[in-house]
Amino acid sequence: MKVYRNHSLKDHNTFGMDVRCAQFVVMEHPDEREAMSAAHLFEAPFYILGGGSNILFTRPYEGTIIHPDFKGIEVMEDSERHQLIRVATGEEWDNVIDYCVRHNLYGLENLVGIPGRAGSAPVQNIGAYGVEVKDCIDRVEGFLTDTLQPFALSAEQCQFGYRDSIFKHELKGKSLITHVWFRLSKEEHYTLTYKALANEITVQDLSLETVTQCILRIRNSKLPDIRKIGCAGSFFKNPVVPENQYHDLLTRFPDLVSYPAADGMVKLAAGQLIEKAGWKGKRIGDAGVYPLQALVIVNYGGASPEEICQVFQQVILDVEELFNIRLTPEVNIL
Description:
The protein is an alpha+beta fold. It has three domains: 67 residues, 2-Layer Sandwich (Uridine Diphospho-n-acetylenolpyruvylglucosamine Reductase, domain 2), CATH 3.30.43; 127 residues, Uridine Diphospho-n-acetylenolpyruvylglucosamine Reductase, domain 3 (2-Layer Sandwich); 104 residues, Uridine Diphospho-n-acetylenolpyruvylglucosamine Reductase, domain 1 (Alpha-Beta Complex), CATH 3.90.78.10. It contains eight helices and 20 strands. The longest helix is centred in the last third of the chain and has 19 residues.
């Protein structure tokens, strides 16, 4: 492991917030947990940071940032119909997708272009274009940071929900994921329920490569390039409301975009609510709401954490006033 004091986090968060942490530790191998424990690195406060693509730092972090940086993709089982791979937590997510495309493995292709690392995927239960990562996860490996006890949780034990998992609740701040196992299909199949995707791809064009390229075109047409404009992707979760509330809203907003959800609930498009509240393209200083996708809050270059907070907090208030719906950030806020 490598240890740095008073370390800048600007290059470790896609919002580009120029804050520092008291100690930054690069974990280079999963077997370093004993040495890290002996160095008291798992004593509060500490935070485990992957690619930094789903976090907003609002102030300097006075504790230890632990950055797992070990990589690798191993084939654990290979049958006629499936391949089971074990991916190290520090592997870039797009490298996982590239592996799937190169080896004709189906299931994760709709998640191409999502920034971040493999170990963060189950925490957030990342999803896009009709697919959630939980649908391909076989198990998640790691260890408890207080006892160093290893664990291997099945997909069911991970308690996956919409942008949710056990790692946001019972195991939040108590576990470090070292590997994620994915069971991927060798049998050709695609999920093309997303309208823009279905409209652009014909049956004759279907392949893993064409699907991933199509999704990247759709993403790039709506989302900023994080290398140029700081952001953390979708800042808010799409709200889920009771069906009666949805029908009441339809009387005032007949064009509301909606999707069926479990237990008779209805999922609404947070981006549309934000746009109707007048925030699409609006900015405060160098912070604002992206003009091509209202679900994205951006740093145009020099935004302070305070400006980013001012924007997202006012968005929440204005949407709540208009719709009586309180948006919940998808991004972790520290």
